[in-house]
Write a structure and sequence with these properties.
By secondary structure, the chain is an alpha+beta fold. It is built from four helices and four strands. Strand 1 and strand 2 (17-26) form a beta hairpin. The chain is globular and about 40 Å long. The termini are far apart.
Amino acid sequence: MNAISVNLSFDTLKDDRVSVKIRITFKREQRKYALPNAEPVIVSKAVYPKIVLFHTTGNLRVSEEVRQQYFLIRPHLETAKAIIKKLSPFDFKTFKILFSNSGAESTSQKLSDSHVPSNGNPLNIHTRSNY
């Protein structure tokens, strides 16, 4: 089985700031996902590397601003990892649906077995013929 990695990424904005994203890598394919917040997490280009360093090392010698920004991001990283753990087999389309909806409902409710059957497809779509 190919490993799936969850990392931080960003999109550069016009005003010398960045919008923090989550990057999923699977089978050498990378896709970025916006955090499912009502408001995106936007930081300066100088703060972003400090957030990544805090994420990877856990070094407590960072400013309060970096900690606050990271603690806005961390729940989404954990949600992404939980979704990936539930998906078997993993696919980007299903991940995107579950991750983008994770802000609307609680993660535990969204990841219940009734939403993600053993085949990994969260969408139980049944068609009905009217004739």
